[in-house]
Design goal:
6-stranded mixed sheet; Immunoglobulin-like; alpha/beta; 17 strands; Collagenase (Catalytic Domain)
Length: 378
């Protein structure tokens, strides 16, 4: 009982003291400054065509070593994004039956950008020391090199994610389509990027970035206008206000059952698990109509991570030296990339196994006939 009371007060403290999302306020700031063009209504009649790969650059801005987060933390965030945007997250099974028919995958995947704007090979991660102890959302200094931050890479070709110490207990914020290109992208407080199981905050599973990138692709909060239902989606039930914590299901408001587990609400990371079909359509339409330049590049070398296709054909995973293949006679080529996207192995002369003992321990992507699967070398 004492433990349950402790958990309750931890959740209450964090939900009460943290500012979950600043995107709406930031949009209003940009409107006042004349830096935001009214958001266009996008078509939702989308013909889906497989996977869409988005090159991402993380700008790590730090004043001390705790803010200079590890590559592993960044990779864990990419894993969360790729799972959440493709309905491959483990907690997708928690979608209630009443909403399962509208729960959706967008087909959007994210990779670390493999080349910088000058064409040089890149890890997709920049690291910059700053004299500033924190950054304010209203000043944009994290996005300006001369102000102690980092200038964005070409925002039409890259999704820029700035990671820094945000003031005001703010977890993160994003720009909506229509923002001045010099400011376009997502900002996340360093304490809430990636999966941090030892962090007592209920926002420790990488869902802040999932939520903010939803705004970047044109999504409103599900509670945007309360019972007026102005989030542009008829498959997200109207809800009176934002939801915090992990409420029991069902909750009701506006005459219907609340979709509190939607990524565009404010619940704890562990209690959000889905986008809807309409939300996916809006994101894809935004990508096709307003952010299409993100797709017009070759900055993602492994473009189709499709674990379900390859899981039963590649083993063991994790592996030590050899990877084995079922039905190897059907394989035309094998390419292996490291987690930075650099090609570390290629072979078109296929046998039932491949010796990868020259690779160091870590995360890799093994691609067979154009489909890719994450593997771990122990």
């Amino acid at each position: 009982m004492r433990f349950l009371i402790f958990i309750f007060f931890i959740n209450f403290y964090f939900s009460d003291s943290q500012n979950r999302c600043g995107s709406e306020d930031y949009r209003n700031i940009l409107i006042e400054k004349g830096l935001f063009v009214s958001q266009k209504n996008v078509s939702q009649n989308i013909v889906r065509s497989g996977q869409y790969s988005i090159p991402v650059v993380f700008h790590i801005i730090y004043n001390n070593e705790s803010e200079n987060i590890s590559d592993d933390q960044i990779i864990s965030q990419l894993d969360v994004l790729n799972s959440d945007y493709n309905a491959e997250n483990d907690d997708f099974i928690n979608v209630p039956d009443i909403f399962i028919n509208v729960a959706s995958s967008s087909g959007i995947r994210f990779c670390l950008a493999q080349a910088d704007p000058s064409g040089n090979v890149s890890s997709g991660i920049t690291r910059t020391y700053t004299d500033l102890e924190f950054f304010s959302m209203s000043e944009d200094k994290m996005k300006i090199s001369s102000e102690g931050g980092v200038d964005p890479w070409d925002t039409e070709k890259y999704l820029n994610i700035w990671v820094c110490d945000l003031s005001g207990n703010l977890l993160g914020f994003a720009t909506y389509p229509g923002t001045n290109p010099l400011l376009d992208g997502v900002v996340i407080d360093y304490q809430y990027l990636g999966v941090l199981p030892n962090n007592p905050s209920p926002y420790n599973l990488g869902r802040t970035a999932t939520h903010e990138i939803g705004h970047y692709f044109g999504l409103e909060h599900t509670f945007y206008a309360g019972c007026s239902d102005w989030d542009n989606c008829d498959d997200t039930p109207s809800i009176t206000s934002s939801t915090f914590g992990c409420p029991e299901f069902p909750q009701e408001s506006c005459g219907s059952i609340d979709m509190t587990m939607n990524f565009m609400d404010y619940t704890n990371d562990a209690c959000m698990c889905m986008f809807t079909q309409c939300q996916s359509d809006i994101m894809l339409a935004t990508l096709a109509e307003q952010r299409v330049s993100l797709l017009e590049n070759s900055f993602c070398f492994y473009n189709s991570l499709s674990s379900s296709i390859l899981k039963e054909y590649i083993y063991p995973n994790p592996f030590y030296d050899y990877i084995f293949f079922e039905n190897f006679n059907l394989i035309k080529n094998i390419i292996v990339y490291d987690y930075l996207g650099e090609k570390v192995y290629e072979n078109k002369f296929i046998t039932s196994s491949v010796n990868l003992n020259h690779l160091i321990k870590g995360l890799y992507f093994i691609c067979v006939n154009g489909n890719c699967q994450k593997v771990i070398k122990d």
